[in-house]
Write a structure and sequence with these properties.
Helix content: 55-70%
CATH topology: Methane Monooxygenase Hydroxylase, Chain G, domain 1
Number of helices: 5
Number of domains: 1
Shape: elongated
CATH architecture: Up-down Bundle
Number of strands: 3
Radius of gyration: 17 Å
Length: 175
């Protein structure tokens, strides 16, 4: 990796970590690194394994915010984003779709599960319902993006300090 790539990864991972640190319903952070762990993964933040198997709205929302933290940090500090957030975006979208389609947690869609109705290429519900679901998933993701953006702007010094430490040490283990 070039220095610029390492710097981008450091700020990206610091964005995840700082978001998680300040969100009430996120898992505790154990380790953060900018050393690639596998092909396609440029760095990672490791969290204490979640012993819960049931999640409330608050936990799902904070999962989305933490996942978006890296992309938001790139945008704040570099004024642009990279492809490094592609897995994060996929994860956020899956969480939001579960929130809306599977768990009946969306106030606008209601206590209905559409997940099992959509098999393969055949849409088992109307275009109007499909549009409402898509709109709600988008609204939910956009809302979490804005929220974590506000958080990271208010904690900009913390993100920057952590990113600089990552550039120096490459890996930080938390007690």
């Amino acid at each position: 990796m070039t220095y610029e790539e390492r710097k981008t990864v450091a700020y990206h991972e610091a964005g995840h970590a700082v978001a998680g640190w300040f969100l009430e319903h996120s898992n505790p952070l154990l380790k953060i690194t900018i050393i690639p762990r596998s092909k396609g993964s440029l760095g990672f933040a490791q969290y204490l394994p979640d012993e819960m198997s049931l999640y409330g709205k608050e936990q799902l929302v904070d999962m989305m915010k933490v996942s978006l933290g890296g992309r938001v940090a790139e945008s704040i500090f570099f004024g642009k984003v990279t492809t490094g957030a592609s897995d994060d975006i996929k994860k956020v979208t899956q969480i939001a779709q579960g929130y809306v389609n599977n768990y009946g947690m969306s106030d606008s869609i209601g206590v209905v599960s559409y997940a099992s109705l959509n098999q393969g290429y055949i849409n088992a519900y109307s275009n109007k319902t499909s549009l409402a679901i898509d709109t709600e998933v988008r609204r939910l993701v956009d809302e979490q993006y804005t929220s974590v953006e506000e958080l990271l702007i208010s904690k900009k010094d913390s993100v920057e300090a952590l990113a600089k430490e990552l550039l120096e040490k490459e890996t930080i283990n938390l007690p």
